[in-house]
Design brief:
The structure holds three protein chains of three kinds. By secondary structure, chain B is an alpha/beta fold. Chain B contains 19 helices and 14 strands. Chain C has a single domain, classed as MetI-like (MetI-like fold, Orthogonal Bundle). Chain C is built from 15 helices and no strands. Classes of the chains: A mainly alpha, B alpha/beta, C mainly alpha.
Chain lengths: 315, 464, 288
């Protein structure tokens, strides 16, 4: 990711000394206080409406929870049970596959769209809004539409493919096709917002950079590679992590379109949590799954940071 | 002459009354009043209860009627205050309400829910109120079973329906059939004749989306092949249970489904859930389907422009034990976090709404529900007969089309069988997954897979 | 002169024109694909109920325009829209405001333990919200320490809705791109952090702030479960909750019409605000 084109000058970071210098601390104090004042609203709100409930949830995983208020300590029993659950393997394997499909089908699409829309001289506003529409369409309607598209007998997808001689495919009923089919729905619903964010980032690129590159004789492709992409890198990196985290927690599409089927082919951990928590009222057990999810996603985030750091260490 | 006038007048009045009363009785046919209400509730102390399922503001007639009902009860018992909430049952929402003590004192839920509410200790024991009110013997015991545990009754049934076979009358007639199938083999034959892929018509369908509803529909088919609850989950008598569905009638039923799908090809390609199976029937894409009796209400409200006279309803085809069906329905329960006064008020309010003749009259006049759905009798004996007769003039559905079902139920030809227990919802879920697998992968070894699932079920659910 | 990686001159060359048309075509096709469901949603409201489930035809056989007027009056849409607006606008402003302040602190003010706090924010993304929904609700019903209930009040929605670590991280990423030179020179000039935020950071981040506002608006407009439980008084309920209650009693086409009407406000907001998503970092920024 070495690029000769950048507006930023790298500042030298002063070496941090470990000596306890009272004067330095006193000097830094007002800055720190200010920093925490700005953080305070977020900290308070998250503490009450996020961290407190989440910690309760984690504690529930170690208990047998009665909704009326009785909690009985069971230690790691819920976790042991979870490992014996026939759905455990399927749900997590599905998560991995969903993540793979989601990245394959949906990671680059918003980037490409953002870059292309950036280029458009006319209709930019139109494109910005149009790609945004899927997020606005109510879920109930989206479900009906996608059911129709994927219907093996009267669906338009099969009709369209039938013209090329492709025989009737069972999109949502076939174990191998169901996942990519669902990922297509998820991508449809999400690419617009990601593209908008990339677009906002691209708009920050100084036009002089492109001019300079053009003067240097760089081809358009090289200009994208050396200016647009490096500029997008931090956002793309963030979106990568967020996308994986979001896909692993997907609930709505498999719940509404396939109910986890066929068999357990599209069962996701979030669906299983919903099932155990609200259909079975077994909150303790459901919380064990939640804790597992936090651990797995936490591990992923850490691994990603390490890998990312190594990859960009020689920038 | 003048002195005879009063006599003539009286005779006229008497004659007219005699002539008119039978006519009035034909319209009203009131339900007998069998309710014994207590003199006072909660010893006269002020008590307030919250009640769910109040009609929403866009139906002013219904709201007015609801308010009037509440007012009448409050007039009967001036110390009672009733607050209506428009809240309707939703699993996630109600879990949160229980946890934060916000559950309405009187709320409605489905037949599938009582076990988990009872197990969580979230609902109150209503036996004493039902007995005192004198209606304990009037309820259909098979239905009361659903909401009872260890002899205590935890709910008041609101409506009950069975799983039967809905069919498209014109399609059947066009194919040369004069009635619904009587046996499962007949069903398979008819389905083959009725399937027309070019016109996108499937001969037979049931809920096959892989959820618990799939397991539920499938279990009805398994019952039709002769399975009994004990065949599925056996009570060993010593507090333990064995999953026995790995062999016997359940295997036959699953193989039958497999045959329907892969050899006969009569099932629709799409997965159907509760809503889409109605859509498929109403739009003529499916000729016959396993169908719950109350789904006609859904058809009636969601598709007012559909011609519902094309649909008939019969009991499920007979197996070796005859025609068997599972039941479903709605019931009212009382929150256990209510205090005793509130429990009393809530229980009597519902019992009064349900059994007071005046209340029944007003209710049926304002309801937007499709009166006339082919449901299961909630009561037994004379009371049931009187109740059914009372509702008849208000039918909104082509009840004649449901004759095969109604006759089978009233003549006792159809047996309502209990669900396997315990952990029936878990069982339905596991079976639902397996059925979905059998329908999507060709050549599944049914006996082996069923045994595997039975083993999993045993170790993961029953032995917990 | 606005340009992308292609200059205007280049675009006039045959190669440039070819590329441009190709790109435009590609974007247009995708646009049609995304427009289709939207149009379908609109025309479903005009069909008869059986028509809605029969096929995916775009055009209804006999458009029933009354469905829309009926949906509008029967479901009391104007009032519900007002409720939704109040709930969502308040939440969006709070959310973006709180997130911007936090992102600013993490990005520019570098508090000690900032990494740790970031992890805490990240934690909220790593657990599906339904997993801690019940404890969240009990918290709203009975706030810790002060023991008041927010049930029935709009605060029971405004406050929990500010939790969205996605906004914090996106804003932090964008704030990080603002050159240190700008903030340093401001500090040298004696600006305090608040002035730095309001006079430098926020104006430069206008596009992403607007984007986040629109995204939050749309997402919160559609939220159902929390408003369903927190607002029991029908007069205060937003449109999603209202439709859940009333729509089930009516025919399918009426439900479609109502759902379509319900999606119009977020769409309008997106259309209105999209032109503000243009201004970038280099507006009067640092050169060279």
């Amino acid at each position: 990711m070495n690029s000769p084109y950048t507006l930023e000058t790298k500042m030298e970071q002063p070496k941090k000394t470990k000596t306890l210098d009272l004067a330095r601390i006193r000097a830094a104090l007002p800055g720190q206080i200010a920093a925490y004042i700005f953080l305070l609203p977020a900290l308070m709100l998250y503490a009450v409406f996020a961290w407190f409930p989440i910690i309760q949830s984690i504690l529930m995983s170690l208990h047998d929870v009665r909704l009326g208020g009785e909690w009985t300590w069971v230690g790691l029993d819920n976790f042991a049970l979870m490992l014996r659950d026939p759905a455990f393997e399927d749900a997590w394997r599905n998560s991995l596959e969903f993540a793979f499909w989601s990245l394959a089908l949906g990671y680059l699409v918003p980037v490409i769209i953002a870059i292309l829309v950036r280029e458009m001289r006319q209709g930019k506003g139109f494109f910005r809004v149009v790609y945004f529409l899927p997020t606005v369409v109510p879920t109930a309607i989206a479900v009906i539409i996608w059911r129709f598209i994927y219907d093996p007998d009267i669906g338009i997808l099969n009709e369209f493919l039938g013209q090329f001689g492709v025989s009737r495919l069972l999109w949502l009923q076939d174990a191998t096709l169901a996942k990519p089919a669902l990922v297509a729905v998820m991508t449809w619903g999400a690419f617009g917002t990601t593209a908008l964010i990339y677009l906002a980032s691209l708009q920050d690129v100084a036009q002089e950079l492109y001019e300079a590159a053009e003067l240097d004789g760089a081809t358009p492709l090289q200009r994208i590679r050396h200016i647009s992409l490096p500029h997008l890198y931090p956002v793309m990196s963030l979106m990568f992590v967020l996308q994986v985290i979001a896909v692993v927690q997907v609930f709505t599409e498999p719940f509404l379109l396939t109910s986890g089927g066929p068999g357990r082919a599209t069962l996701t951990p979030a669906m299983h949590i919903y099932n155990r928590a609200f259909i079975r009222f077994d909150m303790g057990y459901a919380s064990a799954w939640s804790v597992t999810m936090i651990v797995i996603l936490g591990a992923f985030s850490i691994i990603y940071r390490v890998v990312n750091y190594r990859l960009t260490a020689d920038r | 002459m003048l002195r005879k006038l009063p006599l003539m007048l009286i005779s006229l009045i008497v004659v007219l009354s005699i002539a008119v009363i039978p006519v009035m009785a034909q319209d009203a046919a009131p339900v007998p009043d069998i309710l014994t209400l207590p003199e006072e509730i909660a010893g006269g102390r002020p008590v307030t209860i919250t009640v769910s399922d109040k009609p929403t503001a866009d139906q002013p007639a219904a709201v007015e009627a609801w308010n009037a009902t509440a007012q009448r009860f409050m007039d009967l018992y001036p110390n009672v205050t009733i607050e209506g909430l428009e809240l309707e049952y939703d699993p996630a929402a109600f879990a949160a309400l229980i946890a934060s003590n916000q559950l309405p004192r009187l709320f409605r839920t489905y037949f599938t829910e009582p076990p988990k509410f009872i197990q969580q200790g979230a609902v109150a024991d209503l036996t004493q109120f039902i007995e005192t009110a004198g209606v304990g013997d009037v309820f259909n015991p098979a239905i009361l079973d659903v909401m009872s545990q260890d002899g205590a009754i935890y709910g008041i049934p609101r409506d009950a329906y069975a799983l039967g076979l809905a069919y498209n009358i014109p399609l059947l007639e066009a194919a040369g059939f004069d009635g619904p199938p009587q046996t499962w083999d007949e069903l398979a034959e008819m389905a083959v004749a009725l399937t027309d892929r070019d016109n996108d018509i499937s001969g037979f369908a049931f809920i096959n989306d892989g959820s618990g509803a799939t397991g539920w529909h499938f279990t009805n088919i398994a019952y039709g092949f002769g399975a009994t609850p004990q065949d599925i989950i056996t009570d060993n008598g010593d507090g333990t249970f064995t999953a026995s569905f790995g062999e016997g009638a359940t295997v036959d039923a699953l193989q039958f489904i497999q045959q329907l799908r892969w050899q006969d090809d009569v099932l629709p390609g799409a997965t159907l859930n509760w809503g889409s199976i109605s859509e498929a029937l109403v739009s003529g894409r499916v000729a016959m389907a396993i169908y719950a009796g109350d789904q006609f209400n859904y058809d009636y409200t969601q598709f007012p422009d559909a011609d519902l006279t094309i649909l008939g309803y019969a009991a499920a085809p007979a197996g070796p034990d005859g025609q068997i069906t599972l039941s479903g329905g709605n019931l009212w329960m009382v929150s256990n976090s209510a205090d005793d006064d509130q429990k009393e008020a809530a229980a009597y309010f519902q019992l009064w709404r349900q059994f007071d003749p005046v209340e029944l009259q007003t209710a049926i006049e304002v309801t937007t529900e499709a009166v006339g759905m082919p449901t299961l009798p909630m009561y037994v004996g004379d009371y049931q007969a009187a109740w059914a007769a009372f509702r008849e003039p208000y039918n909104k559905l082509p009840v004649a089309n449901y004759a095969p079902f109604i006759d089978a139920v009233t003549s006792g030809a159809v047996t309502v069988q209990a669900e396997p227990s315990p952990n029936v919802q878990d069982y339905y879920t596991e079976l639902g997954v397996l059925v979905s697998e059998v329908l999507s992968v060709e050549g599944v070894d049914v006996p082996t897979r069923l045994s595997e699932v039975a083993e999993e079920f045993q170790s993961f659910v029953l032995d917990r | 002169m606005d340009r992308g990686f292609f200059s205007n001159v280049e675009l006039r060359t045959p190669k440039g024109r070819f590329f441009y048309s190709l790109a435009f075509l590609f974007l247009a096709v995708i646009a049609i694909v995304t427009l289709f469901p939207f149009l379908y949603a609109f025309t479903s409201g005009l069909k008869s109920s059986t028509e809605v489930v029969k096929s995916l035809n775009l055009l209804p056989e006999n458009p029933i325009w009354e469905n829309y007027s009926q949906a509008w009056t029967r479901f009391e849409m104007p009032r519900m829209f007002a409720n939704s607006f109040v709930i969502v606008t308040g939440s969006v402003l709070l959310r973006v405001g709180v997130s911007a302040a936090a992102a600013f602190s993490l990005s520019k003010l570098k508090p000690i333990g900032g990494r740790f706090i970031s992890l805490g924010f990240l934690l909220t993304l790593m657990i599906p919200s339904i997993a801690y929904f019940v404890p969240l609700y009990t918290t709203i019903a009975d706030l810790p320490i002060i023991h008041t209930s927010l049930i029935g009040s709009y605060w029971g929605l405004w406050l929990p809705y500010t939790v969205d670590a996605f906004s914090i991280f996106v804003l932090k990423t964008f704030f990080d791109r603002i050159p240190g030179d700008l903030t340093d020179s401001a500090r040298v000039d004696g600006a305090n952090p608040l002035q730095m935020l309001t006079h430098i950071i926020l104006p430069l981040s206008r596009s992403i702030l607007i984007v986040l506002c629109v995204l939050a608006f749309v997402a919160l407009w559609r939220d159902f479960l929390l408003p369903y439980l927190v607002l029991t008084d029908p007069a205060t309920q937003p449109i999603t909750v209202r439709l859940f209650y009333v729509a089930g009693d009516y025919s399918l086409n009426l439900q479609m019409a109502a759902s379509f009407l319900a999606l119009l406000p977020p769409l309008l907001i997106a259309i209105l605000l999209q032109r503000y998503m243009k201004i970038g970092l280099t507006l009067g920024g640092v050169k060279g």
